[in-house]
Amino acid sequence: MVTLPQPKTPGLAQILQWVFNPIGYMETNFDRFGDLFGAKIVPTESKPLVLVNHPDAVQYLLTHDTGKQLSAPGEANKLAEPLLGKNSVILLSGKQHRARRKLVMPPFHGERMKAYGELICEITQQVVSDWAVGETFCARDAMQKITMRVILQAVFGLHDGERYRRLETLLADRLNMISSPLTSILVFFPQLMVDLGPNSFARRVKEIVAETDQLLYAEIRDRRDSLDPERTDVLTLLLLARDEDGNGLTDDELHDELMTLLVAGHETTATALAWALYWIHRQPEVRQNLLAEQDAGSDDDLMAIAKRPYLNAVCNETLRIYPVALVTLPRKVEQPITLMDVELEPGTLVMGCIYLVHHRPDLYPNSHEFRPERFLERQFTPYEFLPFGAGARRCIGAALAMYEMTLVLDTILKDCVLELADDKPVLPQRRGGTLGPAGGVMIKKVASVSTQAHSTLSPV
Length: 460
Hints:
By secondary structure, the chain is an alpha+beta fold. The protein contains 18 helices and twelve strands. It folds into two domains: 1-77 and 324-357, 2-Layer Sandwich (Uridine Diphospho-n-acetylenolpyruvylglucosamine Reductase, domain 2), CATH 3.30.43.20; 85-323 and 358-456, CATH 1.10.630.10. The radius of gyration is 22 Å and the shape is globular. The N and C termini lie far apart (55 Å).
């Protein structure tokens, strides 16, 4: 039996490394320890959290979490409570978690997706129409505008009016305030959020949270009072949902699930889209391949567009190289188990390290190269490629996120010609729980596609 390998660096230093240089932290420890290592990156845990990155170990971790050997406790995600709320599906456990997951899953599959697809394309066209030829803009901000409007309209069911406009601003501000590496540390040390008066950071956060909650609860009450079963937005479907005992969600539960969908579906998708635009325009052959596939296909069937092989490969490679989640949600050891020859005691928390799985040289040679063809040449298992996690806590909105990515990129390529504002490589930087592009990716609009045919476009 092997003793748990782990860095000897003090816990506080490891937390700071994890916050400010997560890639360096993970890659350094992978080079030193390999498939499994202890990591002191959660301030509330006295013993090391264990990170595993071998696909077999990740598969075991995510398929044996039924409560006997391993469990998937919601309380282990306590750091997310200030942002999501205590009633979020992410913070629930066991039977309660399974029941809530069953309630909130249906809106993200089947016929509902078609209505969301039309909305995604319409919103993207509206945002793109504001870009002037010759204008340079931040791709991250533009994609955030698109994904925020998708959440407000497809999920919250808001389409216009003062409440819509105010929530668009407030929700963006609420997420942006903890999106830099420096402010991300407040997620790990919430005790630092001290209200020091009217102009303090903590007071501003408190005010934004209070006004946001007031507007969300008002919308929930209004919609409950005039419930229209014909509406297709997610809030309506959640208001109509009933569990096996005929009980629906309370206002607090609805609020927390809406916040969960916002955080999971807005911030992450906007970041992934910004990265995708960067790679598409940094490597001209990627853009040309997408345009060729676009020309060969049909514009009529949105589901067919979303299934285009090369477009999907580009999205998958984007999510592989800088995954929207660095790690899976934790599992807790309930009985002594042996993982990669290391015996783990009950009470130990274990997470699959998604980033390291996605950069294993035995799975992805030259892993830092952006090469969509990887996903055309072979099929990866759910434990070799897992940008949305896997198992009982896989991201509920994964299908919608992929659908949104493909349709947004297809619409942008169809409507305009873009190029990077400069040729400097864009580096990853922690943005809340994701790896965002430092500087947001500056893009310039060169032309509208309506003025040129794809065949006459010069590579960008």
